[in-house]
Structures are given as C-alpha cells and as structure tokens.
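Re: the pair you flagged

First of the two:
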Amino acid sequence: MIKAELFVKNKKIVGFHLTGHSGRDEYGKDVLCAFVSSAAYMTANTITDVICAEAQVSADDGDMYVRISDSDADRCKDIFSGFRLHLLNTREQYPKYLKVIFTEV
C-alpha cells in the first residue's frame, strides 16, 4: 500500500511524505505506483524549479519527502491543493492500495 502523508500547518499544506508501493501489480508494471509517483515528482519539481520555493526534497525507491519553509506556504498552496485532490480522487478509485492521511506539524 502507498501511504501519502500530507503535512499541514495553519490549515496550509507544507509538504508530504510518500512511502511504499501499491502492490496492485508487479514492480515495474504497477500503473498506480507510476501514477502517484508522477504526480509527486511534478509537485516537487513545480515547487523547486517553477515557484523556486525553499524546500527539502529527498527521493528513493518507494519513498519521497518534500517539505517547504513555512514562509513559502502561500506561494505553494495551489500546487499542493492540486496534489491533494489528485491523491484523494485516486484513493476513491483504489482504496485498498492508497492511504492518505493529514498530519498537523
């Protein structure tokens, strides 16, 4: 199962941590993993390379962490809102394979 933890501070998303694999198909053929990973990378790249927000980003197999500075929360709110919607809509379609949680930080 993919666990998507969204970090929330003062009602604004300030980052996320994705862990795991969906297990829906074999490694390398799992379209759900690819779908979530693609959205996460697009979000991270938009934050760092388009918005140019100050961010901590790390990614490894089955693990991605993104955290922005609190001062950049307003600038990143739209991309994080889109990512949140994407994850929640995907969870509705694949509830056995994707868990989305919100953590106050």
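Second of the two:
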Amino acid sequence: MPRAVDGTKRRSRRKKILKQAKGYWGRRSKLFRTAKDAIAKALTYSYRDRRNRKRNFRALWIARISAICRQNDISYSKFMYGLSRAGIRINRKALSNMAIENPEAFKSLIDEANAASRVE
C-alpha cells in the first residue's frame, strides 16, 4: 500500500485558496494555480487601496471645504491659516461635515479665520 504524503494538508490549503477565489471569472475560480495567482494579485490591490482610500477621502474633504470657502470669498489656504492663527484645532473631516450639515457654524469659523489672519 502506498504511503500517503501531505494529503489533508494539501487539500485544505487548496480548498482555502479556491474558497477565497469564489466568484472570480472562469479558470480563476476553478483551477488552483490560476486562483492562487488571482488571490495574490487581489490581496496586493486590497492592501494598496486601503491606504489610497485614506488619501482619497482627505482630498474629498479638502475639495468640499474649499468649495464652501470660495462661496464665502476666502481661499482654502487662507481659511486654514486663519484657523491655525486663531488656535482652532479641528480636523478636515469634521470641517467637511460641518460645511455640509451646519453652514451657519461654518460661516462663523470663516469669520474667525478672517479676523485672525488679518491681525499681524
């Protein structure tokens, strides 16, 4: 009787990869070698894009803040400079939400930033 080598370990390793590749198109979901390559590529992309998502959201928040600032005749950079001069420490996500949900409060921040940036 032949000796079994690496039977269950091999099967479980392959099943794990094929389970991860479920939903992929064609050979990528059926054959171990192509599924393994597809999973490796997908994990690389997901790792990269988890970092890029943070970048994209920051850019979105800055664009929103900038748009509201332009409506109130101040540039984004002057607004942020004024906030730092006034000692107001608030992150861009909160500023973006405030600009959308509570424009009156954001307008008061713009006024404070203007006042602080004028004083030299």
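The chain is about 80% helix and 0% strand.

-B.
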